[in-house]
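Protocol step 4 of 6.
Sequence for ATP-binding cassette domain-containing protein (Microbacterium foliorum) entered exactly as in the expression construct, tag removed. Do not edit the line below.
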Amino acid sequence: MNQAIEVRGLSKAFGKKRVVDDLEFTVSRGEVFALLGPNGAGKTTTINILTTLTTADAGRALVAGFDTRTEAREVQRRISLTGQSAAVDDGLTAIDNVVMFARLAGMTRIESARRAAELISRFDLTDAATRSVRTFSGGMRRRLDLALSFVVTPEVLFLDEPTTGLDTRSRRDLWELIRTVAAAGTTVLLTTQYLEEADQLADRIAVLHEGRIAALGTADELKARIGGDTVELHDAQGDLVREIATDGTVADLRRALDRLDEEGLDGVVSLRRPTLDDVFLAVTTTEPVAELTKEHS
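Step 5 output, structure tokens:
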């Protein structure tokens, strides 16, 4: 079986508010898949269903080949979840946190110590191994949280907004760790509000809007569907004076330049390619657009 996650018709409501509305997507084994959307889009609720923390009202989800509703225990044995807040014990050292998790996972003392040493090194915490976690920065706590997720190597790793609250350097350090994890074969599903994060990390991106998938594909596919390049004219102060959308062809680029000439405008011309910001704005300011959604087989 090539799919690590299969979601079919998933829905969930809290009271009269439907927060997940007929979701459908698949995630291949070894893929990094991002759920991108603003607060309230349904990202965390989707992860909670997939990790068996809550049940869906309708639909079906398979994780690592097991049904999240009827085979929850089997799902739990094959996944790890890193939530929005680091699940570490502030009163313990970094290495003691990992040893404790390893012991809870059924390892012997010797196995736990060996595994803790491996993970502390892998997640670049060696210099802080014997320090109390309460002295850690946000980025260090996140790295330790990820290390705990790998006490037993999961088939699927769920990351719920893993870099929220981190500074730029810590965020980029964590991205590198996530890439390393994925390169080793673990399937990663992450949620994020950060467009750059999805662009940098994900093999494919699903843009959530009001609990539904508004667009799905690779970053390049999503950008291409928004349209071609935009010709921009800036004045001497760098302010945008005029922009003309094109279909990306040479002929249309010439047409845009001719129009600027006809309008008698002067300044510096540049070409702007579509970004995930453009995708996000296009699909979240209107109803979800079916033709933007492309299932991955």
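Step 6, annotate. Residues 228-273 form one domain.
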